[in-house]
Design a protein that fits this description.
Elements (H helix, E strand, L loop, with lengths): L8 E2 L6 E2 L6 H5 L3 E8 L2 E8 L9
Antiparallel strand pairs: 1-2, 3-4
Amino acid sequence: MSSFDAVIRKVPGQDGSYGEVPFDLKKEFGKGRMKVYATFDGVPYEGSIVNMGLTHAER
C-alpha cells in the first residue's frame, strides 16, 4: 500500500478539486486509474484516482 500527503486545490472556474500525486501511477502500479481509499481531514473517502493530463516533467 502507498500513502502520501497532498494539498487539496480547487479547480479555477469549475466545481471540482484535485491533489497532486507525487509519483507516476502507471509506472508504480501498471495502470493510470486506480481505486483509492483516502482520508481528507479525518473524513473517509472511497473513489478513484486518475492522471488528468500532466506528466511529471510538466510539474
